[in-house]
Amino acid sequence: MSAEANSLMEIKEKIQAADMVLVGIGEEFEDEAFLQEKENYAEICGKIAEAGAQWVVPYVNYLFLKEDTRLKKAYEGLTSLLQGKNYFILSYCMDGLLSEQELKPDRMAEFCGNWRHFTGEPEENEKIALYREIEACVRGEKSFRDLKAPVSLKTCQPCEFNTLYAEHFEEPNYKENWDRYLKWLQGTLNKKLCILELGAGMRNLNTIRIEKIAELNLKSDFIRIHEYLYQIPAGLAERGTGIQKNAVYAMEELEKM
Fold first, then answer.
1. Over the stretch 112-151, which tens digit does the pLDDT of each residue have?
2. Is 226 helix (H, G, I), strand (E, B) or coil?
3. What is the Cα–Cα distance from 63 to 40, expressed in whole angstroms?
4. If we measure between CA atoms, which residue out of 145, 154, 198, 193 comes closest to residue 23?
5. Sequential DSSP letters for 127-177
6. 95-100 contacts, C-beta under 8 A, 24 or more apart
7. SS3 state of residue 195
8. Helical pair 69-81 and 247-256, crossing angle rounded to 10 deg
9. In terms of CB atoms within 10 Å, which of 90, 100, 110, 111 comes out highest?
């Protein structure tokens, strides 16, 4: 067995031995490289920019990424790892794919939002109509210029997908699970905690970089997987494992073990 395979097997063993598991999912799971290799994606992004319709990007990304077999297998690998464990997941991704996994919805916080929520609250039939119209634009049957945002039932103002792409990101849609996370985190003190950081880059250091929790919990193991930013802080050298590999591919391989 290769050194890399041994390291991945070590992850499995540490998670199985842990009382609680904290997972941080970063931008390697919503990698621009994955999107750019999709047929017509760059062309469609150009049309979105020309139409000034950047607010549709989260749903367009979802349409392309949901068919990616690598991501599907990676999420399946993660779901399998967490089976029967007391876990919480923090995700930077805005494509909404995490919500489609067989995971507990009250044990995940997508703190940058996703396309399933809107700024304001339009009628359900308006949401569905918008999804279909965006899909028609992606297929080239309709122009992004013709898209109209749904209207809020309360304010009668146009709504956007409630993500960091939105002009006015509304945190209340996600605060409930964030509060659950903070309460869950209190319960990790003096527990054997495994922290698994997957593909967290430089875009959201304060939230997704969770080594500080490992520093405070002396019973914790800290695992960082990233193609480039896999280094472990000196203070965690004895309890940390860094794996130089794209986190999607790492979870995909774990799914096979």
1. 888 988 988 888 999 999 999 999 999 999 999 999 888 8
2. strand
3. 12
4. 198
5. HHHHHHHHHHHHTTSS-GGG----B-TTT--B--EEETTSSS--THHHHHH
6. 95/30, 95/58, 95/61, 95/62, 95/65, 95/66, 96/58, 96/62, 97/29, 97/62, 97/65, 97/66, 97/71, 98/25, 100/66
7. strand
8. 60
9. 110
- Do residues 97 and 71 lie in contact, with contact meaning Cβ atoms separated by under 8 Å? yes
81 neighbors 102 (Cβ within 8 angstroms): no
Q: Is the distance from CB of 89 to CB of 199 less than 8 angstroms?
A: no
Tokens of 50: 């020309």
What is the pLDDT at residue 209?
A: 66
- Give the integer Cα–Cα distance in Å for 150 and 126: 6
* Residue found by looking up tokens 């996370």 in the block: 181
Q: Is the pTM of this model over 0.85?
A: yes
